[in-house]
Amino acid sequence: MNFITGLPLSQGNTVIMVIVDRFSKAARFVPLPKLPTAKETADLIITHVFRVFGIPQDIVSDRGTQFSSRFWRAFCQSLGASVSLSSGFHPESNGQTERLNQDLETTLRCMAANNPSSWSSFVMWAEYAHNTLRSSATGMSPFECQFGYTPSLFPEQEVETAVPSAPQFVKRCRQTWKRARLKLLKTSQQYQHQANRRRRSAPTLRPGQRVWLSTKNIPLRTESRKLSQRFIGPFKISRKVNPVTYRLYLPKSLKINPTFHVSLLKPVLSSPFLAKGNPPPPRIIGGQPAYTVHRVLDVRQVRGSRQYLVDWEGYGPEERSWVPAKDILDPKLIQEFHAHKPSHPGRNVRSRS
């Protein structure tokens, strides 16, 4: 399950709920006026899934508020269905709906290019085109996989009737279905080719092993994103969540979900950085622990008090933190920072009460 958002208003709708049956690859596209709450999502599941596919055994989704809420977990538990949330910064964990989202967006973009607010009228035909298109995974169309036979499609020959508007209407439907079918097929082939070019076998990891973590989606405090480290760590693996997802022991300063897809991890083989050993312990000054500041990176104002972003000696960028000016014992560090950035007096930041 997933949602397509950010669409222009069309017949009162701005969102599409995308549902894929993992077995048959059959899809349901449900236009909605807004992003639903957890309870509204449960109602939609009952209406659009139960009567077509039955009660699910497992529901895969992203970590949206609807799916990470207590109500959603309790709802699925009451059904006897397990909840599978995609791993952090890796939407491919929910790959079937993520790719179908891209296919559907591309199809609607082409079909509603002249009038974007008309996309709602094409959703039904995009769904019909998908469910009658042969799947490379099963060798059958989702419709045939579900019901055991190929559905009747539009006849190629037009039938003459006493009411000309009826065959003209059917002709427009057939043309719309063909356009959607051809675009879905072309888009699917393109994504499959691109994915296979970049795909590689996943490394074998185990709990307790040290790994490097990709900084691709991590909000590090850095002066230049392009020149910052591509990997940080190493961090120990806490446990294996599933065959392609691992949970790490991360420092509290990162404040992110510690579960990652294996594609964002790199096993530690050998590194000159590891030869240095563990980070240096604090020194005791005036009975209190003190750490050595490598350099000052930024400054801000919080409730009239100045704070500095500090890079600590012997620690990685994930450990950088804001500290009050009074806690930086060497005034030369602050003087050097302001001399290097004279036009950087410090931005005002509201502190949370």
From TrEMBL:
Stored Gene3D superfamilies: 2.40.50.40, Ribonuclease H-like superfamily/Ribonuclease H (3.30.420.10)
Example GO molecular function: nucleic acid binding
Location within or outside the cell: Nucleus
GO BP, sorted A to Z: DNA integration
Record-level GO cellular component terms: nucleus
Domain Integrase catalytic span(s) in chain numbering: 1-150
SMART domains listed in its UniProt record: CHROMO
Highest rank taxon of the organism: Eukaryota
Stretches the record annotates as Disordered: 188-208
Sequence ranges assigned to domain Chromo in this UniProt record: 291-349
UniProt protein name: Uncharacterized protein
